[in-house]
Design a protein that fits this description.
It catalyses: (6S)-5-formyl-5,6,7,8-tetrahydrofolate + ATP = (6R)-5,10-methenyltetrahydrofolate + ADP + phosphate. By secondary structure, the chain is an alpha/beta fold. It is built from five helices and eleven strands. The strands form three sheets. A seven-stranded mixed beta sheet has the order 6-3-2-1-7-10-11. The protein has a two-stranded antiparallel sheet with strand order 4-5. The radius of gyration is 16 Å and the shape is globular.
Length: 181
C-alpha cells in the first residue's frame, strides 16, 4: 500500500466520535478565522472519501452572505480546474473521479483571481505546509501564483493526515495555512 492509500485509509478509519470532535474544532477555527470577515468569494470542495465534511462550512458561509464556489475539472484544459458558483439550487453531477460537482454553466464561472480564499483538499500534509493531493496536480497548477493574486489557500485535514515530512517536488505549492484537528 502506498502512502496516499495508507493515509486515505487512516482518514476513513476515524470513528464517528473522533471525526465529529475533530470537525467541531476545525469548524470553530474557520468561524474565528480573521480572513473570513473580509472575504467575499470563497472556493471550497465537496467532501469525498472521508475528507473533513465541508457541508456545515458551506452552510455557515452562506449564512454569512459569502459567495461559495466549487471546483470542476476543466472541460478543455486537461488537469485544470474551473470554479463555479454554488447555491442551494445548483444541480450536481458526478465527475469521472466519482466526486460531485456543479454542472458546467459558463454564467457561473468565476475567474480564479477573483477568489479570496480557497479551501484546499489534501491527502497528507507536513509541518512546512506541503500537501499531498490525489496526484493529478490540479491544485498545484491552480495555486502556482496565489501570492501575486492575493488569494489565501487554506488546507483542511484531520491530524491523522499529518506526516513528518512530505518529499515535495519543485512544482509543489506550499500552503500558508492548514486547519486541522
Amino acid at each position: 500500500m502506498n502512502i496516499r492509500q495508507a493515509i486515505r485509509q487512516k482518514r476513513r478509519d476515524l470513528s464517528p466520535q473522533q471525526r465529529c470532535n475533530a470537525q467541531q474544532i476545525i469548524y470553530q477555527k474557520i468561524k474565528n478565522h480573521p480572513a473570513l470577515n473580509q472575504a467575499e468569494n470563497i472556493a471550497i470542495f465537496l467532501s469525498f472519501d472521508g475528507e473533513v465534511d465541508t457541508k456545515p462550512i458551506i452552510e455557515y458561509l452562506w449564512q454569512q452572505n459569502k459567495s461559495v464556489y466549487l471546483p470542476i475539472t476543466h472541460p478543455f484544459c486537461k488537469n485544470h480546474l474551473l470554479f463555479l458558483k454554488y447555491t442551494t439550487n445548483t444541480p450536481l453531477i458526478k465527475n469521472h473521479f466519482g466526486i460531485f460537482e456543479p454542472e458546467l454553466n459558463v454564467n457561473n464561472v468565476i475567474p480564479f483571481v477573483q477568489l479570496d480564499i480557497v479551501f484546499t483538499p489534501l491527502v497528507a500534509f507536513d509541518e512546512r505546509g506541503y500537501r499531498m493531493g490525489m496526484g493529478g496536480g490540479y491544485y498545484d497548477r491552480m495555486l502556482a501564483n496565489y501570492q501575486q493574486q492575493q488569494i489565501l489557500p487554506i488546507g483542511l485535514a484531520f491530524s491523522c493526515q499529518k506526516l513528518a515530512n512530505i518529499d515535495n517536488q519543485p512544482w509543489d505549492i506550499k500552503l500558508p495555512e492548514i486547519i486541522y484537528a
